[in-house]
Amino acid sequence: MKATLYEALGIPQAASDEEVRASLRRLIRKYYAKTRDGQGNVEEALRFINHASRILSDSDRRARYDNELALSAGTTEQKIAHVVSNAVAVEGEQTDVGTAAIDKLAEALADPLETGLDAEDPKPELNLHHPGLTERVASFGRSPLVTIVLCMLFAAFIAAAIVSVTPADTVLVAKQVLVWLTLALILLTVVYGIVHGIAWLRRRSEPPPASLTPQTDLAILNWRRERSVFLGTDHPQEDASWIFQLRMAELERAKSGRTSEPRPWHRLAARLFDYALWGLVLALLLSELRGANIVPESAAWWLGHPLIAPILITLSWVPIEGLLIASLGTTPGKWLFGVYLQFSISDAYARRDARAHFERGLKRAFRVWWEGIACGFALLAPVMIAVAYEKLAQNQETDWDFAQDCLVTHGPPGVLNALTGVCGLAAMMWLYGVAWHQPMADSIVWARATITDALPSPETLANFAGGGGLIGGLAPAKSGDASPATARASVPPSLPATPSGAPSPATPPGTAANPGDPVDPDLAAAFAERRAKVAVLKVEGPRMLRAGNWRRAAELCRTWTDLDLASADAYRCLGQAWQAQGYHQDAIAAFRKAKQFDPSDHDLDDAIDRSQKGIVADFLNRYRR
After folding, report:
1. Residue 215 binned pLDDT confidence (cut-offs 50, 70, 90)
2. Regarding predicted confidence, which is higher, 93 or 322?
3. 94 near 86, Cβ under 8 Å?
4. CA–CA separation, 439 vs 495, rounded Å?
5. Cα 53 to the center of its chain, rounded Å
6. What is the C-alpha separation between 335 and 188, in angstroms, rounded?
7. Nearest 5°: phi and psi at 291?
8. What's the confidence (pLDDT) of residue 9?
9. Is the distance from CB of 428 to CB of 155 less than 8 angstroms?
10. For position 324, what pLDDT does the model report?
11. What single string gives the DSSP state of each residue in 181-233?
């Protein structure tokens, strides 16, 4: 079977550089991490990749190769002229010599003789062979002792974070976190199902992507035997030392169990582990800065908010990831899950110094942050991760790997690495759930309360319809977080703080609905308005308490206690609202006040006991910090 380089790669001769690189990367993913077989097919394929990359990655060599293709397909006279013009060629690659050698010789004879003082610096020689194919696999942490020490360090760090963050009421918080995680998993499943469905419909409507056929595979494996893709009398001379390095690299990859097959779940778990671990480091740094009064309390609260913290964590990880990949070829999470990276895998002439690798690693990490996880924005990141998974499953590589010519290989992580990675990831999910469940709940309650406050309740509409007028003391809650001991709802000064029992607005002037009620019409109207307020507060206060809007419930119930001084329900509602916010001293005072008006309610004793335990837990948490 006769084939050219283009036919062997399965691309047209007019293919762009991107198409050439994509075809070479398909070959590398197929043969690079394979175990060497008895016939040496893997070595033949890699040597073909070396030859094709040297020819097609250089514009001058590719132009000369295309010229030879055109001449070989011409007439007999053109072929004879071509052979005569190349008769002076030395043994080697015909695309490097031939007419080009004659031109260089003529230029050398025409140039004047230069002395050593005025001679220009010689240009650096291009790589004779592809160094990426013989590059050693990343060996960081392959020593059992290093593996044990690193896994122990990860476990100790995460365990210390769990001990310092776990609250006193662990069971209650665990239930809430479990509910949040369950809802998050359900939401992620729905998002992935939608993205997968859209990707499946698009794959059905689009033609299948170009891939290597059995004929091109055969041409690749037999290219040196048939001498077809070279179009010359002599096959390219290979350096014996380079071939030895190639075979040793094959054996090393086979020994380490490397594979270039895509494993998206390993990559996702590794990235989540890296982000979570780096987030813990930033949380400790923020805690120290807040303890030193360098960062204000309000700024620290916003920096740790579940909608802002992921953006900062993932963005600050970009340079760290670029540096680790450039120096070690992996990161802590990737090392635990057996993921390794190698740059410039399809370009034989690419720069391979530390600075070039760092630039590629930085560009790749930034594109992952921008395109792969939507800048860390929690509401869009699941969608972009699902899209990246579908692209990886379809194209066998991600866009950022192709853009930076990066090959991702996977190796067996080992029992200890896998156990540390899985358990550590689960533990850090618990930590972030504990730290974020309350701010997230407050944000949801705030959004729901904002909508609820914008819509009047049926009781409020009934009072407005009944002519009771505007109800004071029910103004929307302010955004400031004032202490309940100082938070008081505004009460019109014209309303006397007298017990309830005033006549209704329908009571005719000069008469009293109940014995002892005042007969004065203005005073009767004031009592009627007071009763209307109490009626609304009896409904709105417990409703806000059930909705979880504890700050608003505390304001309403406080107004209720000011208007109805002898109501046990009002003080009970106020104590529950303050207890939910963590103001246990004020909650105990409210519960004891309710106990005075309702001594038979034993639930108040339990509530007082919970607040006392909360005071002790707060003291212990401050002592630990």
Report:
1. low
2. 322
3. yes
4. 38
5. 35
6. 26
7. -65, -30
8. 83
9. no
10. 92
11. HHHHHHHHHHHHHHHHHHHHHHHHHSPPPP---HHHHHHHHTHHHHTTTT-SS
Residue with tokens 């469940």: 437
| Whether the Cβ atoms of residue 256 and residue 329 lie closer than 8 Å to each other | no
CA distance 455 to 461: 10
What is the pLDDT at residue 237?
A: 60
Six token digits for residue 384: 């972009």
DSSP lists the bridge partners of residue 342 as: 407
Rounded CA-CA distance 21/29 in Å is 12
Q: What is the pLDDT of residues 411-455, one digit of tens each?
A: 888 888 889 999 998 888 888 888 887 787 777 777 777 777 666
How many CB atoms are closer than 10 A to CB 595?
20
Position of tokens 């190639």? 246
CA geometry: angle 42, 341, 214, nearest 5 deg:
30
Return the residue matching tokens 């990161």: 331
**Cβ atoms of residues 278 and 320 within 8 Å:** yes
Distance, in Å, from the CA atom of 440 to the CA atom of 450, rounded to the nearest integer, reads 15
The single-letter code of the amino acid at 151 is: C
Count of C-beta atoms within a 10 Å radius of residue 336: 31
Which tokens sit at 215? Answer: 């004929």
Q: Residue 481 is encoded by which pair of tokens?
A: 């977080």
pLDDT tens, 475-510?
444 444 444 444 444 434 433 444 444 444 444 444
pTM: 0.66
Percentage of residues of the chain with pLDDT beyond 90: 13
Q: Hunting for tokens 């790997």 — which residue is that?
A: 401
Rg over alpha carbons for the chain, rounded to the nearest Å, is: 38
Scan for tokens 């009064």, then name that residue.
293
How far apart CA 279 and CA 297 sit, in angstroms, is 19
Residue with more model confidence, 125 or 264: 264
Higher-pLDDT residue of 542, 470: 542
| 582 pLDDT above the threshold of 50 | yes
**Crossing angle of the two packed helices 41-56 and 59-72, in degrees rounded to 10:** 100
- C-alpha 162/C-alpha 313 separation (Å) is 19
- The H or E element that residue 341 is part of is strand 339-343
Q: Write the pLDDT tens digit of every residue in 275-319.
A: 999 999 998 898 888 888 888 888 888 888 888 999 999 999 999
Provide the token pair at 297. 């309390």
The whole-angstrom separation of Cα 534 and Cα 499 is 11
Amino acid at position 106, single letter: A
Q: Which residue has the tokens 């103001």?
A: 583
Please determine, for residue 273, whether its predicted confidence score (pLDDT) is greater than 90: yes
Question: Among 472, 461, 532, which Cα is nearest to 502's?
Answer: 532
Measured in whole angstroms, the distance separating CA 423 from the mean position of its chain's CA atoms is 19
Residue 165 token pair: 């963050």
Give the residue with greater pLDDT, 70 vs 2: 70
Are the beta carbons of 389 and 363 closer than 8 angstroms? no
H helices, E strands: number in the chain: 25, 2
Contact between residue 337 and residue 422 where contact means Cβ atoms under 8 Å apart = no
266 half-sphere exposure, CB direction, 13 A CA radius: 21
Q: Which residues contact 610 (CB under 8 A, 6 or more apart)?
A: 579
Q: Which of 529, 457, 523 is nearest to 492 (CA)?
A: 529
